[in-house]
Automatic annotation (TrEMBL):
Its cofactor is FMN; FAD. Residues 282-523 form the FAD-binding FR-type domain. It comes from Hippolais icterina. GO terms for molecular function: flavin adenine dinucleotide binding; FMN binding; NADPH-hemoprotein reductase activity. The keyword Transport does not apply. CDD domains: CYPOR (cd06204). GO terms for cellular component: cytosol. SUPFAM superfamilies: Ferredoxin reductase-like, C-terminal NADP-linked domain (SSF52343), Flavoproteins (SSF52218), Riboflavin synthase domain-like (SSF63380). This is NADPH--hemoprotein reductase. Its EC number is 1.6.2.4. Keywords: Endoplasmic reticulum, FAD, Flavoprotein, FMN, Membrane, NADP, Oxidoreductase, Transmembrane, Transmembrane helix.
């Protein structure tokens, strides 16, 4: 039975052979195990080592040169400055005021520098006392509903969290605000209060500029009392030097590579030819206008709906955000300035800062031509400020005209009154001043140095990204009016947009733009009722809101009451988005549509009158339904009247006194249930 004996060893194999076979088997096993263990150990060792090296990477990065010199103290010491003027600026005015104050310093034997708080470490304020006769001044604008400007956001955050000792800091604050807004000069007030709380010494009272009145006059009045206070605290006195000091020097380029010349770009050279995201204020996206239609059926005004194509831009927006557009000045105005000053506008030049240490090398992108500067970079349509008139006066060859300019630039009551009537109320821009003063012919390069930058214009977006992810809609009215001198003044952006014709290709239909985020947002829960109040072009964000609520309804979401109070002049003249609103109402998305036609009857009817008429329903939605209220449009009259109407409704139905009703509405604002998107 051989088969049964197979597993047994062959009886012929010797004992020695058996031992050798076992040894061989053992050594092979050893090699295998040792190799496996060695392999595993090697892998583990190197893997572990890599993990250990990871934390060292940031150390290597920190050795690299810093992106910017963030110590303004070191810069001041290096350049012999005593005064630093920080600015929180959204439209350029606060920056302009900061430059003027820093320039003033030389009259008192001091040296100043204007500084963007975004570029420096503001915790260094505690070290300012290291510099003799030092002072920090803050020109702070308030943006939106009491918010800091974009460039002052970090400074604001630092102030809120800081526990720094600023006992050696001397400071002064000038705020730029608008009294038609709820939170007038909130940023200026906060900075002034907080610096004192941290131990800083206020050397002059807080200045509160009001753009609804005369911001320029407010600044001059504050400034003329500010400098004597500086003299007293720092023990200095006026040197008597009043001469004009140029900040930039002109360099004319006769032989220049045109590929290195700016043609209207806001930041990077050739950025309009070679577009790269992300898109923002310094890198706008060139959007194609795909639709531009007139919204109104009659009347003198031109109300329009534009659609901007943002396909492939990676731009994202939410209903309630703002779109900023960079306009261009009217070529006929630019040409007239060139003719009056006898200049070849196509001359390529640079204006280079005489202060080599300054972060601001040029007043606008250089090199460029005078034509480009006057078209895309400089504000030539707003009445110039008094410092511009003061600097220009030296070029008037007629003594009467020179005296006229100097008087308007003075701080005397008579001079202020003259500036107010002759420049501000008459809406004289730089071209009108040159036309009305034949002997005033300044060098064009000095004029370009003095004029403020042309700013982006903001519009409430009139679409929802849920419905229109690849386009942004704008609703605007062209600005056009006759001045006291009989001239026809036109709004820069609206008239430029009006002429944007949709076409396949070509620059005539391109709009440089970017999106600015807003706090004007629909409630988180779609079931929350909303009350929207927006007469005229104030309807813009509500078109986006209603589109979004319709989309949510289509998704099967429960959507709360959507109530609109809209107003226009006449039903058959300027009733904007009439067909769209009727469709939304028919579909049941827009649950209430209340329209006030102010001029269709003897007595004017506005949105606040309709709110009063429906006061019981309004109170029920707010009190029981926890509705969110949104107001968009004119801040000066409409928003104020609407707010007063809410005080009345709350007082009547909530059985509250007037102060209690005011407090109730203010609390709604704090909780984000009463939102404003207003302009003056």
């Amino acid at each position: 039975l051989t088969a049964m004996g197979e597993p047994s060893m062959d009886p012929t194999i010797s004992a020695a052979d058996s031992t050798a076979q076992q040894d061989s088997l053992f050594s092979m096993m050893d090699v295998f195990l040792i190799s496996l263990i060695t392999g595993l150990f090697t892998y583990w060792f190197f893997f572990r080592k890599k993990k250990e090296e990871v934390p060292d990477l940031p150390k290597m990065q920190s050795v690299a040169a810093p992106v910017r010199d963030s110590s303004f103290i070191e810069k001041m010491k290096k350049t012999g400055r005593n005064i630093v003027v920080f600015y929180g600026s959204q439209t350029g005015t606060a920056e302009e005021f900061a430059n003027r104050l820093s320039k003033d310093a030389h009259r008192y034997g001091l040296r100043g520098m204007a500084a963007d708080p975004e570029e420096y470490d503001l915790s260094d304020l505690s070290r300012l006392s290291e510099i003799d006769k030092s002072l920090a001044v803050f020109c702070m604008a308030t943006y939106g509903e009491g918010d800091p400007t974009d460039n002052a956001q970090d400074f604001y955050d630092w102030l809120q969290e800081a526990d720094a000792d600023l006992s050696g800091l001397r400071f002064a604050v000038f705020g730029l605000g608008n009294k038609t807004y709820e939170h007038f000069n909130a940023m200026g007030k906060y900075v002034d209060k907080r610096l004192e709380e941290l131990g800083g010494q206020r050397i002059f009272e807080l200045g509160l500029g009001d753009d609804d009145g005369n911001l320029e006059e407010d600044f001059i009045t504050w400034r003329e009392q500010f400098w004597p206070a500086v003299c007293e605290h720092l023990g200095v006195e006026a040197t008597g030097e009043e001469s004009s000091i140029r900040q930039y020097e002109l360099v004319v380029h006769t032989d220049v590579n045109m590929n290195k010349v700016y043609t209207g770009e806001m930041g990077r050279l050739k950025s309009y030819e070679n577009q790269k995201p992300p898109f923002d204020a310094k890198n706008p996206f060139l959007a194609q206008v795909t639709e531009n239609r007139k919204l109104n059926e009659g009347g003198e005004r031109h109300l329009m709906h534009l659609e901007l194509d943002i396909s492939n831009s990676k731009i994202r927006y939410e209903s309630g955000d703002h779109v900023a557009v960079y306009p261009a000045n009217d070529s006929s105005l630019v040409n007239q300035i060139g003719e009056i000053l006898g200049t070849d506008l196509d001359t390529v030049m640079s204006l280079n800062n005489l202060d080599e240490e300054s972060n601001k090398k040029h007043p606008f992108p250089c090199p460029t031509s005078y034509r480009t500067a006057l078209t895309y970079y400089l504000d030539i349509t707003n009445p110039p400020r008094t410092n511009v008139l003061y600097e220009l006066a030296q070029y008037a060859t007629d003594t009467g005209e020179q005296e006229h300019l100097r008087k308007m630039a003075s701080s005397a009551a008579e001079g202020k009154a003259l500036y107010l009537s002759w420049v501000v109320e008459a809406r004289r821009n730089i071209l009108a001043i040159l036309q009305d003063m034949p002997s005033l012919r300044p060098p064009i390069d000095h004029l370009c140095e003095l004029l403020p930058r042309l700013q982006a214009r903001y519009y409430s977006i009139a679409s929802s990204s849920k419905v229109h992810p690849n386009s942004i809609h704008i609703c605007a009215v062209t600005v056009e009016y006759e001045t006291k001198t009989g001239r026809l003044n036109k709004g820069v952006a609206t008239n430029w947009l009006k002429n944007k014709v949709p076409e396949q290709n070509g620059s005539s239909s391109l709009v440089p733009m970017y999106v600015r985020k807003s706090q004007f947002r629909l409630p988180f829960k779609p079931s929350t009722p909303v009350i929207m109040i927006g007469p005229g072009t104030g309807i813009a964000p509500f078109i986006g809101f209603i589109q979004e609520r319709a989309w949510l309804k289509q998704q099967g979401k429960e959507v709360g009451e959507t109530v609109l109070y809209y107003g226009c002049r006449r039903e058959h003249e300027d009733y904007l988005y009439r067909e769209e609103l009727a469709r939304f109402q028919k579909e049941g998305v827009l649950t209430q549509l209340n329209v006030a036609f102010s001029r269709d009857q003897a007595e004017k009817v506005y949105v606040q009158h309709l709110l009063k008429k429906n006061k019981e329903n309004v109170w029920k939605l707010v009190n029981e339904g926890m509705a969110h209220i949104y107001v968009c449009g004119d801040a000066r009259n409409m928003a104020r009247d609407v707010q007063n109407t809410f005080y009345e409704i709350v007082s009547e139905f909530g059985n509250m006194s007037q102060p209690q009703a005011v407090d109730y509405v203010k609390k709604l604002m704090t909780k984000g249930r009463y939102s404003l998107d207003v302009w003056s």
